[in-house]
Specification:
Shape: elongated
Strand content: 5-15%
Radius of gyration: 31 Å
Oligomer: single chain
Helix content: 40-55%
Number of helices: 14
Distance between the termini: 106 Å
Order of helices and strands: HEHHEHEHHHEHHHHHHEEH
Length: about 350
C-alpha cells in the first residue's frame, strides 16, 4: 500500500513538473510570441492620455494589430510592464513578424512620443488651447488659466493680464508628456528668438515691445496677403501719430470673441479694446502675430494713408483722405447690394 501511494505521489509530482514546464511554454508560444502583425512598412497611431487597457487594445486593433485585451493584459503583467504603456503619438516600423511581447516592449520603451502641433498665425490663446486639447489632450481651461498666472507673466517679464501675443505661432514638435509650463516656455522663447532679429528696429522705436506686439496683432487681424502688411501698418501708425481713433475691426471682434461683419451696436460696446471709442492702442495684443506682422509694425510703408476698406477678396483700398475713403466704401456697398439682389 505504501508503495502504491509512493507511486501516486511520484506521478503527481511528475504531472505537476510537466504542467509547470508546459504552461509557461504554452503561454510563450500561444500568447507572448503570437504574431500580431506581419509585413513591412510603417504604422502611425495615437494613444490618448489616460486611455484604459481596453481603449489601448481598440486603438491597436484599429491600427492593424491582431491583439486581444486578454493578450495585452496577460503579457504586460507577465513581464512586469502593466501600467507602463505610454501615451502619445507612435510610429511603428514593421519588419517581418511582430509578437505580442515585442509590441508591448515597443509601447513601453520605444514609442515616438511627440506630436506636431501647428499654431496658425493670428491664433488667440483660446484657439491655441483648443488645438492643444485636440492634439495632445491638454486641458484647455487649465492652459488658459496658466497663461494668466501672474507668476508666469512675471517670470517672462511680461506686463499685462495674459500671455496673449507672446505665444508664437509656429509648428512645434512637442513631447506627449510635456506639461503646460513646458509648452508655454517653448512658445514664449520662440517669440523672443524671432524678436532678436528685429532688435535694432525695436530699440529705435518710440513704442515698447508690448505696444509693437499689440500693433502687430491688429495688423495680423487685418492682413490676408503680406504684400499689404506695410501699408496696413502705415494706416495705423499714421492714425496713432495724429491721435485719431484706430477704428480697427479686429479689436472689436476680439471683444466679441469671433470674426464677423460689425454692426453699429458692436462698435458701440464700451470696452477698452474698442478702438472705435478709445484712442490709442488697446490694452494688449488681440492675438499672437507672426514675425512678418511684427516687422511691418516696426517698419510701415512711407505712404500717408489714413484709411482703408476691405474689398472682400482679402485685399484693401488704401486712402489718404476721408473723401477718397467714402468713395471707395460707396463702391463696395453698391457692389454688395447688387450681389444681394442677384441672390
Amino acid at each position: 500500500m505504501a508503495g502504491y501511494r509512493k507511486k501516486i505521489f511520484i506521478s503527481i509530482q511528475a504531472a505537476l513538473l510537466i504542467l509547470f514546464i508546459a504552461v509557461p511554454l504554452w503561454f510563450k508560444f500561444a500568447v507572448f510570441e503570437k504574431t500580431v502583425l506581419e509585413g513591412n512598412g510603417m504604422i502611425s497611431f495615437v494613444i490618448p492620455k489616460n486611455s484604459s487597457l481596453i481603449q489601448i487594445t481598440d486603438t491597436l486593433r484599429n491600427s492593424g494589430f491582431d491583439i486581444s485585451y486578454q493578450e495585452l493584459k496577460l503579457t504586460s503583467k507577465w513581464y512586469g510592464l502593466d501600467g507602463r504603456i505610454r501615451h502619445g503619438g507612435f510610429i511603428y516600423s514593421k519588419n517581418g513578424k511582430t509578437s505580442v511581447r515585442e509590441l508591448i516592449d515597443f509601447l513601453t520603451k520605444n514609442g515616438t512620443l511627440t506630436s506636431n502641433i501647428t499654431v496658425p498665425e493670428g491664433s488667440r490663446i483660446t484657439e491655441i488651447a483648443g488645438i492643444l486639447r485636440s492634439k495632445m489632450d491638454i486641458d484647455s481651461a487649465s492652459f488658459v488659466e496658466r497663461t494668466k498666472d501672474p507668476a508666469i507673466l512675471n517670470f517672462y517679464g511680461i506686463e499685462g493680464s495674459s500671455l496673449e501675443g507672446y505665444l508664437y505661432p509656429e509648428t512645434y514638435n512637442f513631447n506627449a508628456n510635456d506639461t503646460i509650463e513646458v509648452i508655454i516656455d517653448r512658445m514664449v522663447r520662440t517669440l523672443r528668438s524671432k524678436m532678436s532679429g528685429v532688435k535694432d528696429l525695436l530699440d529705435s522705436s518710440s513704442y515698447s515691445e508690448r505696444e509693437i506686439i499689440t500693433l502687430a496683432s491688429i495688423i495680423q487681424g487685418e492682413v490676408m496677403y503680406y504684400s499689404e502688411a506695410e501699408d496696413i501698418s502705415a494706416v495705423y501708425n499714421n492714425r496713432l501719430k495724429k491721435n485719431m481713433l484706430l477704428q480697427a475691426d479686429p479689436t472689436v471682434q476680439y471683444i466679441l470673441g469671433k470674426p464677423k461683419r460689425l454692426l453699429f451696436k458692436d462698435i458701440s460696446i464700451d470696452d477698452p479694446y474698442n478702438t472705435y471709442l478709445y484712442k490709442g492702442l488697446p490694452p494688449g495684443p488681440i492675438n499672437n502675430p507672426s514675425i512678418r506682422s511684427i516687422e511691418a509694425a516696426l517698419k510701415p510703408s512711407k505712404e500717408k494713408y489714413l484709411y482703408m476698406v476691405a474689398k472682400g477678396d482679402g485685399t484693401h483700398y488704401f486712402n489718404h483722405t476721408l473723401k477718397e475713403h467714402l468713395e471707395d466704401k460707396g463702391k463696395l456697398d453698391s457692389l454688395r447690394r447688387a450681389l444681394r439682389k442677384k441672390k
